[in-house]
Amino acid sequence: MTTNTTRKQFVKIVQPVQPVQPMQPMQPMQQIAPHRWVAV
Q1: Less packed terminus of the chain by CB within 10 Å, N or C?
Q2: Is this prediction's pTM over 0.90?
Q3: pLDDT tens across 3-30, in order?
């Protein structure tokens, strides 16, 4: 069960960080290719 807990915690920490990190460099990209951002 130790592996399950570690995996769940890792996903929880990555979830909030994923949208924050890629959103910065993607903000200007969204204007150029908004349809590409949705595909990603």
Answers
A1: N
A2: no
A3: 666 666 666 666 555 555 555 555 555 5
